[in-house]
Design a protein that fits this description.
Order of helices and strands: EHEEEEHEEEHEEEEE
CATH class of the largest domain: Alpha Beta
Number of strands: 13
Shape: globular
Number of helices: 3
Strand content: 35-45%
CATH architecture of the largest domain: 2-Layer Sandwich
Strand order of the largest sheet: 12-11-10-9-13
Structural class: alpha+beta
Low-confidence stretches: none
Radius of gyration: 20 Å
Helix content: 10-25%
């Protein structure tokens, strides 16, 4: 079961115990000295607007009730710590083997929750050539024209069908060109 790669996994919990599982798992990670194997525990939440008595309120709502996301290196020991945390009923996966989430799925979920993924902060410069790796323009090479680091957005000028166009992309949708 040893993989040695940090990945996101989904853990099934008793309904309504998601926050307790998060707290218990973070505490167990610390007391069992697993900080090098278990990194982040997230209960996927989103803002929901509700209207009560004519007043508009924003409340947090669980996106996936009964589930918690765990960023970890899957080893026998880390699996044991997570699996035997109070409130956890098991990992999501096929049979006895947990299945890691796809990086694109995790990036989308973190973005929806307003959580910045620190692994995405890459350095680009205006005038640098990059390759689009995701979306409608996948495979197209363009030149960086503008960078908005606060929003993780970048404008790239691409040449298509004899004319140039500026497209705005997320940092995750481009890669530096390897020469």
């Amino acid at each position: 079961m040893t993989e040695n790669k940090k990945q996101w996994f989904v853990v099934h919990t008793y309904s309504g115990y998601e926050n307790k599982v998060k707290m218990n798992l973070e505490r167990r990670t610390e007391t069992m000295h697993m900080e090098d194997y278990i990194f982040r525990v997230i209960v996927p939440m989103e803002d929901e607007v509700i209207i009560r008595d004519g007043e508009r309120k924003i409340v947090k709502r669980k996106v996936y009730p009964g589930y918690v996301m765990v960023e970890m290196v899957m080893t026998d020991d880390s699996w044991y710590v997570v699996r035997n945390t109070t409130g956890v009923t098991g990992f999501v996966g096929t049979g006895a083997k947990p299945v890691a989430l796809d990086d694109a799925e995790v990036a989308m979920l973190l973005r929806q929750m307003g959580i910045d993924d620190p692994a995405v902060r890459l350095e680009y410069a205006v005038g640098e050539q990059v390759k689009v790796t995701d979306g409608s323009f996948t495979g197209v090479i363009g030149t960086v024209t503008e960078i908005n680091a606060e929003k993780n957005r970048i404008k790239v000028q691409v040449d298509m069908l004899g004319s140039s166009a500026n497209i705005e992309l997320d940092f995750r949708q481009i890669a530096k060109l390897e020469y």
